[in-house]
Amino acid sequence: MESPPRQPLQACRPAAALAGEAAIPGDKSISHRALMFGALAIGQTRITGLLEGEDVLRTAAAMRALGARVERRGDDWLVEGPGIGGLTPPDDVLDMGNSGTAARLLCGILASHDIFSVMTGDASLRQRPMQRVTAPLTACGARFSARIGNRLPLAIQGARDALPISYRLPVASAQVKSAILLAGLNARGVTEVEEPEPTRDHSENMLRHFGATVTVSQHGSARHIQLTGQPELRAADITVPGDPSAAAFPLVAALLVPGSRVILNGIGLNPLRTGLFETLREMGAALTITNPRLQGGEPIGDIIAAFTPLTAVDVPPARAPSMIDEYPILAVACAAARGTSRLRGLAELRVKESDRFSATAAMLGAAGIRVEAQADDLIIHGVPAIPGGGSVATHMDHRLAMSALVLGQITEAPMTIDDSSFIDTSFPNFVELMHRLGAAIAPP
Ligand code: S3P
Hints:
This protein is α/β, with parallel strands linked by helices. The protein is built from 12 helices and 24 strands. The longest helix has 13 residues, at 244-256. The structure holds shikimate-3-phosphate. Shikimate-3-phosphate is lined by residues 29, 101, 173-175, 178, 200, 324-325, 348.
């Protein structure tokens, strides 16, 4: 397959402070789940505010290929599924593009459907570990054959009569938890997952919203989740909140560019996603949440971010699951903060869209920041004036690309990224939105 042409971009200090209000696109995690769960429910699900990024559109295409009706109607999306157990065999390979969430959650659905399918993805996704889902899912009776190293492409023969799985997560991963719960939807009996540290619970919330019985009990920091198999999921409308992981980029830009004040409306504030906001507050950030409300079972609010000189922070490993996608942009904030920051327990960053642990360090290095990697910790020596002038390799990773473009708003010399095209996987109007707020981003 030919790869699309690279789209380099350059970011430099804007002429004035960032200002204005912006609506952030829909939450990526919730958008994937809305399409998948809608296809497993009986009746028509209307989704408002679906993220129309490439990752989510891959999920839409896959659910269509498996027999669901998925279409855009006006600004909304309508999903009408064959229901649990009713998916039909796809007549071609399912291509999940850049999306680990789409690939792993779909493995769960396919594991308990008696159909054969083959799944692949782009060069980044084909490097990512799939064993974390295929190993536990074999316990329900599914068979998987993957490329060497348990990488995609992956052939899947789902179980005819799936057994319920009982599994303790060895890594904190909402994708693995969700894959097991999704397999459990078509298994007779109770599927159980134990997670040593809580991860985002959008699957549990949405399953309940569609009528499934999901119980969660907390034992210290661990959670025990039980799902009763073969429920009749009923279609239910979903309004997707703004993605806190996307909001993080304009938000940190506003904190760093002197004099800025930006308002981001309708952002998801699920406590299992807000570790970045907590961390930024510890750094002294002026972040205010206004108009807090509940929308479709998820807390949301408007966030006001205003320029604040930040101080260094020490982030404990236990906070990682609640801000796992936010470390690259947090690292940018730490580069500009007074003092030395320590971000601990980042092993999982090595298996994201890129090896984000190394790539984040390299991004800061390209801007002249001193960074040390000690085991799974990143140590960042902040400076008041960041030299910049470097070029960042983004490794097909949208979050590195956006982080580097925010970094370029405060460096003395412009920062360049080798490719901005992957930003479309999660934040299709990122550059336009940043321009409207006053950021300086242009082709080099
Ligand atoms: C996601 C879970 C996280 C996160 C990803 C989205 C989800 O991955 O990094 O962007 O929607 O469940 P892990 O489960 O691998 O931590």
